[in-house]
Every structure is written in C-alpha cells, then in structure tokens.
Amino acid sequence: MKKIPLHVKIIIAMLLGIIWTFLSENLGILQFNIDWLAPFGDIFMRLLKFIAVPLVLFSIIKGVSGLSNISELGRMGLKTVLLYLSTTCIAVFVGLFLVNQIGPGKNLNIDLKLDQDNIDKISSIQDNYNTKSNESPLQFLVDMVPENIFLSLSDNTSMLQIIFFSLFFAAMLILIPSKKKVHIDNLIDSFYEVFLKMVDVVIRYCPIFIFALLAGTLSKVSKGNEEGILSIVKGLGLYVLVVILGLMIMALVVYPLFLKFFTKNFSYKKFFKAIAPAQILAFSTSSSAATLPVTMDCVRDNLKIPNKISGFVLPIGATVNMDGTSLYQCVAVVFLAQMLGYELSLITQLLIASTAILASIGSAAVPSAGLFMLVVVLGVAGIDPMWIALVLPVDRILDMCRTVVNVTGDATVCSVVNSFSKK
Ligand code: ASP
Question: Which of 192, 202, 330, 350 could form a disulfide with 95 if both were Cys (CB 3.0 to 4.6 A apart)?
C-alpha cells in the first residue's frame, strides 16, 4: 500500500466514494452514509479551514517580507492581477460562446417544482442581494480593510481583510531595518513551518477523509432529491453538459496554452500530476479556501515554486480568481433567458460578461457562493431570481466541478508569475 503514490490513492478514494454512494442509493442506505460517514468529512473540512487562515497570514508575511523592496511587490502584484483578469475574461467568453452556440435552454419545458427548502434558500439569496444593492459601489474597497484584525481572523469569510492586513504588515517589515526585525522574522518562520507540517500530516490521511466527504455529500444531495442524482442531472442534461464542457476547455486547453506560452518546459503530465491532490480536494470540498493549504503544498513541493511567489499569488487567487464560477454564471443566466424566451442583445451579453467577472471576484471561496452571486448577474438580464430554483438541484455537482477549475486557474497563474519573475 505504501508504494502507491498519494495522488493515485486520492483518485481511488474519490472513485470509491462516488461508487459507494450509487450503491447505497440502490440499497436504500443513504442515511447510514449521512450519519456515519459525513461527520468524518466535516472533521476534514474543519481541519482544512482552521489551517487556511493562519497559513495565509504567515505565508504572505513570510513571502512578501522576503522581497527586496516595495516596487518588487508592486510589479508582482500587477502581473498577478492582470493574469487573473485575463483568465477570467477568457472563461466568460468560453461560457457565452458555448451557451449561445449549443442553446441548452431552447425548446425546453421544465416544471418549476419548489419545495420549502428551495423557497427558503431563494428568499435568503434575495435578502442577501437586497441588502447589498443599497450599498455604495465602493463598498467592496471598504470591506477589504479590517476594522479589527482579530475579528477578521476569527471569521472565515474575511479572507480579503486578512490578505490586506498581511500585505500591509509585510510591506512595513520591508521598510524596517534588518536588525530591528530579526525576532519577528524568526517567529513568523517558525509559525509558518508548523502550519506547513499540519498540512503535510492532514494530506497523508486525506484519501480516507475524501472517501467519507464524497460519500456524505453526495448522499445528502441525492436524499434531498427523491428522483436521485442521475435523473435530475438528466433533466437539465444539456445545461450541465455545456457548463462541464466549458470547464474542461478551461482546464485542458486554455490553462495548458497559457503554461506552454509563458513558462519553460511545460509538461501536461507533470503539471496535472503535481496539482492532482488539490484538484481532487477542490472537487470533494467545493471550496477553494478549504483547498488552499493543499494547493500551496502542491505548488511549492511538486512544482518547486518558491514561497515568496506562491505565498502571495495563491491566497489572492483563491479569494478573487474564480474562472469556473464566472463561466458557470454566464451559462446559467443565458440558459435561463433562452428557456424563458428572452432575446439577449450583444450589449446585454457584454453586460452579463462584465457582471459575471465582478460577481466571481466578489464570490467567497466556499460552497455555493457562485450561486448566491448569480442573483446579481440575473438582475442585469432582467430575470427574476426565483428562476434560480431551476438550476438549484444540479448546483452542488456543478459547484464541485467549477471549484476544480478555480483552483487549477490559481496554480496556472502562479506558475506563470513564477516564470516571469525568473526572467
Ligand atoms: N465553490 C466555489 C469555490 O470555492 C465558488 C462557487 O462557484 O460557488 O471556488
């Protein structure tokens, strides 16, 4: 068993988790999975989440304070933001192109069956949107600055505030003379090493956890839908297919092309083998934030990208770069418009594209965040948020897939920034 490489063990665990759920569905023992397997998945998610915040804090401070001067930070920041923006623009374009060409929502007749759970979910999405729409357009800038860093550290949704604080703190460290910061440098170094070790230990046992997480999550999804997962997916088949096709184009064509053009000696096999554990974890957890510790580990250990780059590029990416999410939002909105018989002009589609870019930046890196932000994009197309109910049943499955692309995009941009900085 020891000889099997970790990424193969993880893939086997993932497949076993999926197969086991289908078997349990037929045997009628989904409740067993929910009672006895799902808790181990929850423990795993908690472990990953509690490691993520301190890891981001210490890795950014350690990475950025190691830069020689503030202008190096500015240059790296600019490259990172431009690259993230360009991959998201391509994602949005791919999504719009596919959904317009294939037209999954044309000639489709689906009854809108709303159970109480869905009605509650939609009204909470609407409430969230109504509160947000009264805010100033610059509120996102205000929200980035913490009022109290200890509050932000204790709140899993304040990752941007933690990044802001870490960058500010690290930039100030660059400006301080070396002899005045030796102690703090050493302390941060040691804390960073401890959290890295935690990631190593957790990853070693992650195949077992991934099995439990997938079996638990999929059982919950199929239990809530009496017709079973497969039949729901079939009903919305073409829509699901378009989203997955777009995501595959991003992961298998667009990112490899980026890597081929902008990095040296790119090898398909090496890259995907290196980040496979992070991709599978993204699929199992539907959360880029929870996956972040493992993404950092893969990029540093397997792709040999130094911490001063990965420690800066990846936490920002996990929070703001969501190519899979923006692609999915475009497809979902146009799909619903097609189904309702709305004509979307080119201008409206461009507006949808730019809103999806902003909405994906604003989405938190947690399960279903993209679905919540979909309301904003629907608003641009003049579609009632109630219609989200239609895509809701397949959202979890698509969330798992789009999170893989979000994480792959982060690792791609990190490799490109690394190769630019070598030049
Ligand atoms: N779950 C996604 C992520 O964490 C966000 C989303 O699209 O819902 O990257």
Answer: 330
